């Protein structure tokens, strides 16, 4: 139950080189409420959260927490004050146990100065049980937990600081629907105990399911705070983009013609326990979706095809000819491209410029006598920045300062420069806003219309049903179902993803 204002944000501004991330933002967060923050990539959400959690200091403005003005020196200061942040990329140490992660830097010691593991174990178990978590042993290594269990450990860690406000940045991005429901149950429990939750998500259905109020940011400015029950998705999106937003993407299904030959054919491909005897065909201009639950083997399949892993058995054929692909360099030579799931950890060089990120997979084509032709490189980068409408000050800007959607476009530009025959897209709209998502859909559709074969990995079933011509469903490293878009719906996809249809067939 809301009893008063917990956090008041007054005229907060923050600038970085070449960009004003926040400009006079003011609003408040109530005690015991779930308050959602929405906005397009580049709206200032992450910058604001980093200020609230002590990572950045604001240039101007004030913060009042529990009625007192606060100026955080660092994240630890914010934690001790009562604000904890759970980042989208979880910040746990995989080689340490659950209890060591929760009390890192605050280990319980006995009177001789030694760590009192018995006491710490007991305390950790109690903290976990307060969240209703009974399936995690405090001695378990973080590396042995599921993603949803790691989320629970992060929440337990936040509560161990006696946090009154927990900031959650895209907390469901790597969770299944069932795991998300468990997370929401935990959030509701926190709310009932008087803890406030600041919830950031691009998924509109989650905003309406979990939040009490929602604040909209746009281009670093505060737009409006609404009671969630009094608004709808159309109004929120219009506030986010600054205009009425009615754009819905529709794609005409590509029909495979009789006698048409596949651009890519995979026969009996296996890699460890992750990819087990997988076979499929991909045709020019087709968007073939790979879907399934987290851990089904989709990412490992495309990474094996791209040469990141060496296949143990099976064949890969391009335009009817068998090829051996044992490294990404060989994959690129054969006209393959990969936009990975983790753009910051796997796809981008954050400290390098937009120009360098776009051209690095094509440098041999941009060289003359072993030297890069700077003018040619610059022209190519500028062409694709313009073509994909990448919002940046210029191509010399560091890619770390771009929004998530524009970072994703930068990776796609890298492969367009290489004129790919086949492009693997692993969660291409993960963590991007509704406007950028629509633009990326158009880019994907245009590539397919130009004859590029596209393998799309997506956990968002509405996205799969919007883009795909055919759908392959995976479960435990195997393809358990193949569906045309006409016969596919979310229910039948989930039945294949959990292998229920195949079990019924066996019966």
Q: Which class do the helix and strand fractions yield?
A: alpha/beta
User: How would you state the average pLDDT, rounded?
Assistant: 86
Total number of distinct structural domains: 2
Taking Cα atoms only, what radius of gyration do you get, to the nearest Å?
24 Å
CATH architecture of the largest domain: 3-Layer(aba) Sandwich
CATH superfamily of the largest domain: P-loop containing nucleotide triphosphate hydrolases
Q: What is the strand arrangement across the widest sheet? A: 6-7-8-3-9-10
CATH class of the largest domain: Alpha Beta
- Termini distance? 51 Å
Major sheet, described briefly?
A: 6 strands, mixed
* Helix content bin: 25-40%
Shape: globular
Show unreliable segments.
Answer: none
CATH topology of the largest domain: Rossmann fold
Number of strands: 22
- Percentage beta strand: 15-25%
What is the overall number of helices?
18
